[in-house]
Amino acid sequence: MSITPKDLLHNKKDLNKNIAVENIDLSEVSIDDLVYNKKNYENYINLKSLLDCVSTCQISDAYNGISRRSGVIKELKPINKLRVWGRITTCVTNSDDWGTSALAIDESNYGDVLFIKTNNSDMSVWGELASTCAKKNGIKSTVIYGSVRDLDALYYMDYPIFACDYAPNAGSALGLGEINVDVDINGMTVCPGDFFYGDETGVVVIPQKLFKKVMIQTLAVKLKESNIIEDINQGKTLSQVVGLK
Fold first, then answer.
1. Cα distance between residue 118 and residue 243, in whole Å
2. What is the rounded distance in angstroms from the CA atom of residue 233 to the CA atom of residue 194?
3. What SS3 state is found at 190?
4. Which of 21, 102, 146, 152 is deepest in the core (most CB within 10 A)?
5. Domain-embedded: residue 185
6. How far is residue 14 from each of residues 26, 42, 179, 203, measured CA to CA in Å?
7. What average pLDDT score do residues 44-49 get?
8. Residue 166 is inside which H or E element, if any?
9. 190 vs 32, 81, 133, CA distance in Å?
10. What's the mean pLDDT in 76-92?
11. What is the tally of structural domains in the chain?
């Protein structure tokens, strides 16, 4: 049987489809559904629809309701104010060794967020060239617990960057660091495969074992806040809505 162009168009999956928040179904999703694999279309679209309409604030509130932890790494700030989410590939290196960052690009999976921790912010381990290569390789974003450079380029790139600081100087391509190891950030452990969400407000990291539970709670937070906004638009004050009056 021949396949016509019309058949191909009919069967093509719309990966930009968005489901109204009140219709999102997370009952079957897992952290693996963060990336479309040709077999998980419904789960991917439901999860993407949620993550496209929530914020770090709502995810942090949801995580706090489950674990009494915020998931926030407050030192990390958005460099170019772009929203991103995905699973984490980790990298640990010294600030004088940007070579490990280059190697980590090759080790990251498609759709991952590359999370790099350096020992200090004295020198940059990431800039325009690394961002260009990472984006070409299918990495969604880079997070540097340390310094970046080339802000004149990074500000305008369609590639989300989060960092603690910036510095114009870089070290050398030593390649002496480690990739895909657990990373300690002030007592908080970031593991390979954990979930990362970043936006204009900051970043949140969620352990992969709690991913589904936090996503379901995030949906509940989003729906609750949407109802509060509706009440305010109908004339109630915030103090009335939360029961202070």
1. 46
2. 37
3. strand
4. 146
5. yes
6. 19, 11, 34, 28
7. 97
8. strand 161-166
9. 18, 22, 24
10. 97
11. 1
Token pair belonging to 85: 């989410």
Structural domain boundaries, residue 160: 77-206
What is residue 140's predicted lDDT score, i.e. its pLDDT? 98
Contact assessment for residue 180 and residue 92, using Cβ atoms and an 8 Å cutoff: no
Cα 114 from Cα 87, distance rounded (Å): 9
> pLDDT value at position 241?
87
* pTM value surpassing 0.85: yes
pLDDT in tens, 105-144: 999 999 999 999 999 999 999 999 999 999 999 999 999 9
Could you tell me the CATH number of the domain that includes residue 150?
Answer: 3.50.30.40
Integer-rounded Cα Rg, in Å, for the chain is 20
Tell me which of 244 and 217 has the higher pLDDT: 217
Q: Is 137 exposed, middle or buried (0-12, 13-18, 19+ CB in 10 A)?
A: middle
Task: Answer whether 167's CB lies under 8 Å from 176's CB.
Answer: no
